[in-house]
Amino acid sequence: MSLSWIRHKGSVIASALLAGVAALGALPAGAAPFDGSRTSFADERFATVWSRTDSESVRSGRTWYWGPGPWFDYAEFYRQGENGLRTVQYFDKARMEINNPADRSGANRGVTNGLLVKELVSGRVQLGNDPFDTDQRTAADVPVAGNPRGDNPGGPGYSSFAGVATLDNGYRDPQRLGQRVEAAIDRGGNISVRPDLALPETEIVQFNSVTGHNIPRVFWEFLGQQGPILDGRVTNGPVVDWLFAMGLPITDAYWTRARVGASEQDVLVQLFERRVLTYVPSNPAGYKVEMGNVGQHYFQWRYAHLGTPWASPEPQLPLLYASNVDTGRHWELYRYDGGPGASRLTFNNEETVAFSWRRSWDPGQLALLVDSRRSNAQFRQIYEFGPVTLYDGDKAWNAQIRRLSYTDGTQPPPNGPYPGYLPNNVANEYNASYSPDGTKIVFVSDRMGGQELFIATSAFNGPTQLTSGGCVNETPTWSPDGRRLYWASNCDGDFELYRADVAYDYDSQYGVSARLVGVTNLTNNTTDDRFARVSPDGKYVAYSTFIDGTWDLSLLDTRTNVATVLFVTRSNDDAPSWSADSRSLAFASDRDGDYEIYTIGTNGANLTQITNNAAQDRWPLWAQ
Fold it and tell me: Disulfide: which of 267, 367, 485, 551 matches 544 by Cβ 3.0-4.6 Å?
């Protein structure tokens, strides 16, 4: 029995998705990775393609072609995409893509199906239409069949097939029509012969002359099977266009040993450009041949830091804040533990303030970006705390500290668009914000003389300058799909909120080349608007506006650009940060005489005081 069949049988999430897709007009306009709607379709065209084979009305007793539903969408770099980005959505079995939003041609209305298997085997992530335009990584050792690697130590990974795969290397297998499959492959890529597995159903019945690979009967019949499909209405026909679904074969079929569930089994596998087919003779009817979980495997390889969104609950992040309650002078980082409880997390001689989480569905992969003067009291620098273990033993805090900025004179100046050039020999860097997928960081730096926005990889490779107008820029924050930035900027004497799309010319693990397009002033007024934060669902920007001598919380609707003051008081209320469900805000207020941390619903209800002391508690960070 295959792992995917075990996991999906009787799945509650599947039932909910299937019922919801019955009427496509009811689908939301989009999804967001970390706001609880990751299982919604990011585009109605994705829903249409999925429904054709996997909706409740047609699937009964048939294995999944995509999976019970999506579980992650994002805007990934693609050189020919709009602003160098394309919308993608991941399923258990594959990834759907829209390279050109205006293209609705063909049977799938512009939806394409990624070459994930080819990338997993080769380690080359394709960056555009040119097959040689790639980001070279280490090939994936994720098992092609069965349980994950930790519970499947001997199962061959994708990298095991590199020596027998067609990867722009001219490799071809000889035609073996009429022969049965008895070749086996192990994790080391070694080939052996298993005559006991030369079953009648493995007889070679097709030879693909383009890539030079043989297809056994059991897989060829699966690719050509007829059955119910949803195409406006339920009809009978070819279940899949196999070239669209699979691509061309890039290996012959091989027997493998893989741990599936609680037992080790013989599994026949064949790798195609886009998918993997598996055959387990002992599986129930309808599930003997299945699409491998390529979408899951690829996601584990490309986004190892994000965990397993197909199987994990939403990340639960604590409320952090800065306080001088113990030092009397500088800020240290604290975690709200509920009730009157709080845990001090940092013990430095100088300030440390949290600004951004790298969220993850794996609690052990959470990371935190902070501003700190821990290495030099004169300069703010960026550090990553991570992976962060939030609760270990008696609510202890464990984090590996990684310094990202070295612009305070303690190290040679960093490389960047102007290698080695810092106008004042030193610089401040702060307000570092992780992209929702955790692969990029936007931050503020005065390395070029002004307080400008820069973008870098998560490893801080080759920062690229995004703004250059001489304005004072601060608090950049990302839209949930990674396409836009929001921030505050003072260009003409007061701070205003701005928005811009990020246009990428290049994006790989080695560096990022990007620019801002469509820069728009969202709050064109004569007062200060600061501390911008986008809600996890992307619908609102929370910020502080200066009204009649005090700071008040406001919400800007990102769809209409209409701003609403949440409430007006005689106190200062500033630096809002969102809860994970986008329904509440944490903020700092001096309404009791000194700054304390509060939470409140976005409807203005449920005001709750979190801290209560005679110190200054500032700069909360919740989920966003």
Answer: 551
